[in-house]
Fold these 4 entries.
Entry 1:
Amino acid sequence: MFIQSLKSSTSSHVLIAMLSSVIIVSTVSAQEYIVPPMVNIPAGNFMMGAEGGDTAAQPIHPESVAAFQMGKYAVTVAEFRNFAIETGFNPESTCGDNIGSQGLGGPKKLGTGRWDKHRYSYSDYQPVTCVSWQDANAYAKWLSNKTGIQYRLPTEQEWEYSAKANTSSRHFWGDDLDLTQACLYGNFADKTGEHVNNNKYGLSNVGWIEHADCDDGEAYNAIVGLYRANPFGLYDIVGNAGEFLNSCYFEDGYKARSKEEDDVNNCEFITHRGGGWHYPAQPHSIRDRYKREGWNRVASLTFRLAVTGHNNHSDASTIDFEQSLKKAQVQRIATRAKLPTTTTNLQLVKKAGNNENSSYNLSWQPSTEHGVTGYEIYQSNSPYAHLYGGYYKNHYKKINSVNADVHSLEVNLSTGMGSFRIVTKTNTQFSLPSKPVAVAVEPDVVALPGRIYMNNTAALKNISLYKSTRKDNPEPYYLFKTNKNSDHSLVTSTFNIDVKKSAWYRLNYRGKSFHSAPFFKLWQNNTLLGEFSYEAEIDDKTSSRHKVYLQQGSHSLQLSVLREGFDMWSMSWLEFTQLEN
């Protein structure tokens, strides 16, 4: 849809002037641009950055911001279309809109989209994406020439100050550590996103980057302004699509630099902020980078405009734009499908009989939602399925479908082990699967010296077990974790061991990390045995550079990992070989 500016009449000017004496209204003589709605941001001081986590966001330090204006919304396709028509902006359809079972394609991979049509497009009131940092600056310059208002991209200081909006919590709406409230304030990786990606691509965030425990109703780029504004009145300042800024990015954080180094026309990487629909909500200090030259346009990045100083300028095109936007928002909310609530309170009780009886009664809390027509029952194809990350249908198969008035049935575990999950259905939709209910594998007691495989785990915390897709893999199970820039969570895996003799043992492990650094700690009955490092050039996939003293007898052995900043690490096994005295 092409938005046209309203031609102002004398009577409309008089009416608006009567409504507000502080607003100055200008006219648009031609239907050639849209003056964006802007928000006056007060001058102020704040603490920028973070105390831990991503080194690029450190150190935390004081900053002062002068009064300025920030775009109420990200620039939309409707606004950008005027620029594209007048300037002949007509890039090839190579924008990165790739998505599949392994996630997004990344900025180095060519896609099939462009600014006005790509995989996530459905409305002119979505943020314009598939544009570069240079395109964003070109638009700001073009609009400045049209309006006489000097538009530009915000600096990183302005963006973080505006996003936090004088709050000190993890998010501007509160700490929300379990992310149950995030979907009221932005479009993040959520239940709808998980559901759509499950069914379209076999893609799951479970055990990978995870998703918010809420539903924002959108899987990908959403129409701007669908969610609640932050305290400064800015919409979608986090989530939806990341935003290009007018600041350089350096991996070693906030350090004093020369004017030449900090020149955005020279630095290798520029900053973008806000995350997007494909990530759960992160603290507002989190930064990300984009190569100023050489990377492809992508469908997950947009921009919003800024203006130095305050003014109360308004324009007929702004009023028309917000009226049309409101209609688009109402229509979208009215027509998008609602995801059924996931079934809860599953129970699995063995039926009376002898010990070899493999029959169980599976029951669950029935849904009270209107429109529920029944439930689908899924059974695991592996005794470890309840520990797995990834798409649930890779590890579960449907065994039954029942009507809405049924909330228990008899199931069979012929091997004596396994798990079940339940999916709620309506005439048009399916819910996400319930949490699994399992008859768990009795964890092995591993004799040492020997090798501990990750499927020998007695307990996992903040991590999932994965199974290799290679049929010839002699080590099919491994722990895998994507540690986001904002993550600082302790991962643990506990094993039951029986040590033959108190002695020093050579520790060999098979694992991998993005970083050469301290990797993991081992604890025996809550006593620290040591901290062990990973060196990429030495260890590659296996390491035998370490030793540890183990006490004879039956013990609990705990592997713990605590990473700061982005990492993708894995662990397949630990091996202990007794050293000679």
Note: The radius of gyration is 28 Å.
Entry 2:
Amino acid sequence: MKKILIYALLALLTPASAMADEGMWLVNLFESSIYPQMKKKGLKLKPGEIYNERGTALSGAIVAVDYGMGTGSVISDRGLVITNHHVAYGDIHDLSTPENNYLENGFWAATEQDELPVKGKTVMFLRRIADVTDEAVEMRDSMIREGKFGVFGTRKIYGAIEKKYGKDTPYEVSCASMWRGEKYLLFYYEVYKDVRLVGAPPEKIGAFGGNQDNWGWPQHKGDFALYRVYGDKDGKPVPYSKDNVPIKPAKVLDISTGGVHEGDYTMVLGFPGRTNRYMSSFAVAEKQQVVNPVVIRARHERMEIIKKHMEADPKVRLLYSDKYFNLSNYADYATWENICLRRYDVAGIREAEETELQRWIAETPERQTEYGRVLADLKKGYAARAEAVRRKNYFQEAWISPSDALMTGFRVASMVNRMRKEKIDSVRVTDKAFAYALNLTKKMYAAYDPATDQEIFAAMLKLFTDNVPPQMWGDYLQQVYTRYDGNAEAIADYAFRNSACATLEKLCEYFETPRTADQIMQDPLVALAASVSTMTFSDGVRNAEEEAETDVDKTESLYAKALYRMRESKGLPQYPDANSTMRITFGNVESISPYDAVKYDFRTTVDGYIEKNDPEDFEFRVDDKMFSLIRAKDWGRWGEKGVLYTDFITNNDITGGNSGSPVLNGRGNLVGLAFDGNRESMSGDIYFHPEYARTVCVDIRFVLWIIDRYAGASGLIEEMRLVK
């Protein structure tokens, strides 16, 4: 039987009076269908034990990391938080130096005094949710009647509500809509900004298998890292201070040492980022045929260049590890997303539902009036804008983002625009007008190699000019292209040799002398950045739609509304798209047969480290200590019948932002951390396949073994609450 896994939106459809009785909101939400399904699959908890605003339920131990870039959970009464290694990757990278390379060697704080403050790091606890639908809808309808809604109408509604309710609370508030405006909720968060790195395994454990195993199964990653959250003496959020103390959380997760087995109940609480499961067949086709091919080609070309330089120089490897990880993560996702969209015929599934939708619309004159042209307008609009969207994606993937030096050129060109607007005669390195560009550039150049960046620039310049017509390049790019007969390497060599943007030192040296706007614009990288206009590509898409007499984004919203109404009329369950607010997904531990004659077990063992070990391949190195511990079968209390398990899979439904989310058993105890999806789930942001989608999780016992046996940091385990 196929499984329907449903994200349940916290506090949805809850009358205010119900909040007085903890957990009643879940009874109201789950009584009809969801809660009984959870119990049938193995849930042993009452709704109020999963969420209540007093903070003593499971949700009180769940945190959004960096405003939803990842998820973490509290595992000690001294504010210890666990998340994924890849969520912490950027922090570990930024804290590393050639002398103390925490990315390569790992980091473990012997005492709380040794923990490393992470500048700009945040974790936030969800403290309250309020339904503001009536107020938001009234505001929206008024703006539409007055012709003031526009492109940023929804953001204006959010801003007004956040301003109104945010001024009289110690919490940060964030408004979000569900089902494209069917419901509006206001979320209250307690945000902590003194967060310190406590422990992380080396990359060869935390990211074992690297890009080659990414989005795959089986995997063997020890994908975890530890932070500690600090507050003032009363446990309240305050900026970093050496006098701050670890917080005492209202809820701490118990950690199960009993392991997982086929069929076990699992649920994941976290902050999934974005899904678009109300996407039309036309939008699916555009993603598959227009957008993803550009992303895949551009990012893989950049990856090849970066990998070559990283393998040639350990210093470059340290500088570019974070960039390479982020590039490969999305490039591989787009690759496998296309494979899944094609394999599952997602566009065909949408087309079949759209046929049903058209029949439903035709049933009443009111529906015909409101939705009658939706599908025809979408078909016409997407066809008209296809080439403009392709060009826009080449601009985004091959021009505006790849080269750090060119990005500095963009910032400096933007500064020139402000100079001319504000009638500033000249700028030098110490001037306030230059501070913004300089501060951003300093951080960027902290992980920068000129030779690597120049080669990336040349490759992406060729990709851009090969696929975008010259009339969209601007005058200066056309001039240098003609001067060097289209030789991208020669253009790059000229630009980098003669531009102040090529290094931070050259930039600061150039602006030691006051420079006028005209002088600055003679810099080749600044001139190249200014030559190609963002508006050219945005206007191209808009003009194509106007010629087709349609607005694709607005029509997609109307399509989603019609789809929602049809499903509602038929009594079909439907969850709101993920939007970085807290969600729950439930399911079971389950093995998989992804292809004919192929079957994968539901869990892997540490033997995979020995089988995959390759000293010549950076992504599959096993160091001597790990090798020795595995050979000795020194599992301590973390093994099961003489075996140490590493990762496991479940049929839970997750997406980006869920990274680091706790995987909980039927009693709400922590059994693992979600860190990946299998390749067969890569259509998940658009379409969740009920048979092939899996969540890849690190077994919490493997985490504990690494902390205990590999790192020798057993003091951290003493903080935790272990249960069988």
Note: Residues 271 and 582 are 5 Å apart (CA to CA).
Entry 3:
Amino acid sequence: MARKLPPDVSDSDFRRALDGFAGVVGKEWVIADEEAGLNSYRDPFAIVDDDRFEPSAAVAPNSVEQVQDVVRIAGENSIPLWPVSTGKNLAYGGPAPRLPGSVVLDLKRINRILEVNEEFGYALVEPGVSYFDLYQHLQETGSKLWLDPASNAMGGVVGNTVDRGVGYTPYGDHFAMQCGMEVVLADGSLLRTGMGALPNNNTWQLFKYGFGPYLDGLFTQSNYGVVTKLGIWLMPEPPGFRPYLVTFPREEDIEQVIDILRPLKINLVIQNAATISNILLDACMTTTRSQHYTGDGPLPPSVLKKIMADEKIGMWNFYSALYGPEPIMDATWSVIQDALSVVPGAKFYFENDRKGDPVMEYRKKLMSGVPTMAEFNLINWVGDGGGHVDFAPISPTTGADAIKQYEMIKARHEQYGYDYLGEFIIGWREMHHIVTLVFDGEDEDRKTQAHDLFAVLIDEAAKAGYGEYRTHIEYMDQIAGTYDWNDNALLRMNERLKDALDPKGILAPGKQGIWPKHLRGRKN
């Protein structure tokens, strides 16, 4: 099969660039054919044909200086690069590039934990450091700090943070806990943000803002630079930790529950990024669909009731935790229990009440800073060929919005013959509604239906005022197009920044719908 090259790139220019990359990183770290492992840079759960976003090659530097050289060579030869940290952003396209034919800039070898500061509670890491890596380092050094892992522990600390991902401890808003970056720009030059711009400073990971405009946000969910170092605040180990589960028996309970939780969260009674998961999101962690139902279409209510009884869970399941000294946890619990007890049928569980429950164990780990891969059990829901993609609209923390989103999205799932698997993650004043669309990747018809369903959900959510906060590479242009206030003023601003910082369009063309000037109107 002929190699898919980037637009307007000749084979001779491409070969010249690969030779240049090899001169910087070594031939073994330029991957340009399937035998050398290029296939691993495709989307592992593609919702479209897996060659849709096929890279032409990958290059893996092992230092910041090599990143700078690779970026310069790419610019000289007009080769678009697609930077990834660990390439494990698996619900959103993995390491595959938005622009077909791009060269994946794989940063996995730049993987040093540069500092862990116990006194101030932070780490300084490179992009190849995974949550597993940082957790293991903290354990081996006897650290009294907790990290906040994403649900995919293979993912990179840098990658998840700059994609504005979330976790489940009180430090669950990852970008809010970020402090200081080092960035390679599209011309190969090097920048440090915040206090890092001051030579010999001692507060780079302590004070986020520095002097002048705050730039760190420009390098999140964008294609303006390659982040090569990142500071992240870590949580001191609390004197006590007590995870709990509250189950609710009816679909409509979500409305009342959210209205109860909002003031508790705003007033910090609920300390962590707590979640309310739907029955099937819990069930798919330990069982498969065929164990419950072999018919077509979504699981009927009678089957859902049987799952509730068999698994001792609710239609909605609220997972959170108490942190602090025992008297504080006791007092906090009394407030939470009293508030949620008004929901008819609510049941309360602590860890000892759920011994042997793998879902409770999985949630406990996430809420106590322990990385886990348990969530990937969900892809087995439809069989061995399962794939998944996450739909992630944001809404206010109101019961009316929760029930509206749930009913709207569930109805569309039913129309297309899919089960609704979702959870609400409670933020400070908003909710991330994470809906995991699990599809049979080996059934082309079902995959096409899943693809079409996702596109419909985007448009319907936008019309109702709900925008997604991150997405799969297939839908970046569509979602960017929904943020169209004042004749797409935001996108036009993003494009102006792209033209100024990366006039040749070398870094991640199409990321978040931000295309370089020469590719606008030719979106692949």
Note: The chain has a mean pLDDT of 95.
Entry 4:
Amino acid sequence: MNIPWLTIVLAIPLGASILLQLIPRTATTALKAFTVAATLATAIVVWALVATMSGSAVSPGPLGFHYEETHEWIFAIGATYHLGLDGISAWILALNAGVFLLGSVLISRRSTDRLKLFCGLLLLTETMTAGVLLSLDLLLFYLFWEGMLIPLYFILANYGNENRGRATLKFIIYTVAGSLLMLIAIIALDFASGRGSFDITALLGGQMSRTPLVIPGLNISTFSPEQWAFLAFAAAFAIKIPIVPFHTWLPDLYESAPVPVLVFFAGLVSKLGAYGFIRFGLTLFPDAISTFKWLLAALAVLSIIYGALMALSETDLKRIVAYSSISHLGFIALGIFTLTTNGVNGAVIQIVNHGIIITALFIIVGLVEERTGTRDIRELSGLEKRMPWLYGLFLVATLAGLGMPGMNSFAGEFSIMLGAFHLHPAYAVLAGVGVVLACWYMLRLHQGLMHDPPQPRTEGVRDIRLSQGLVLLPLTALMLLLGVFPRPVGDIARPSVEQSVAVANGSLGSTALTTVSGSGP
């Protein structure tokens, strides 16, 4: 029908953030309703696109897209406005729409300082994260990747506890440092390709020099240009995930940020690094990622075990969930670095699953803190009898977080373990240790809050209201539904994953890659 649906996905929240400025800041009800309406409209468009993907045609080439838009952007340097949606990005984009809708609903149910500013920044952040997931031109991708930091900075620096300034500064410094390296690598890719283009379909067939560089004055050879470029991209993506040892910004930031921010930050933003590895790391640097996969997989396993052990050592509810997130994100990273279809497909599935679980956990932590005035697990226990509805919802989230069969996280973790075993059995065994530790810290968290003898702080605590339960109910329903029927995510993602893995493993052959690069816009 020639309708630019992907541009519409970007335009709705962007336009809404501009129109929002016409509403008086004192009209809080109108501000909240408008924000919810904008995120709901975006979600409807995105979910409709995902639902119709199975019947849509796929563009030719190793990286086939169901929906694609290409226009000239900066002709002088070969930059294009190129958007695309395939099986890899489809469900992550649907997750993006869902967490921002949920974040706007949470804001509509509470009092927030400078509400107009917060709602405008939330909508602008959704535009940028959607742009990251849809961009197929590296310069356009970098624009959204860096542009995302602007609204995030103002949100994180202005909302949260007294430690938010230091935590925000650490996050920004880490991210900007990694992004600068990625920008240098993008420029190097453009020069190395000789095609005057930043488009992934044009760069796909280009081969950077594999001859090792020599550092002047030293008699040792260093990495090849392709390996240096990959390491620059990998630094940016590893910081965003984050992978140990690039993780130190995450616990402090999660502890200081308010729950509505954590809903979309933990639910989606931390997954963009994993998406970057799948979209660009596997396809643009097949030789380099094959060289470094052993090291990267080892760091992923380290993240799994380290995050789990730290979750066991913490007493602050937010920090427990934050470190559990690092552990589960390590599983996602491990799946990617196996360079197998099972592993990468499991990573895509787990990106969606983890977004659902971590969002529910942070909402539950926020509800507990709201009613008791503390997040210290040593002062919280015996909530089962006082909050039976929260108990039931939390039980589902706990079982999903520890990877119980029949819950949504099991299918993704199992697929990742298959890929890890294919890479080397040792990775699968060590990742299995992380699964055991996940059972330990999740059951410790659940038992500590719900089943131990009551503490003075929990006396007289009220159960959650119906409206709060209705926010959590869709998340717990998805945990159960995707646990018994994970095919909708896996089946849509798998064809695109197979294509990307084939490129990463070089099984498509140089002829196919050259053809694609020659037909780029």
Note: DSSP finds 21 helices and two strands in the chain.
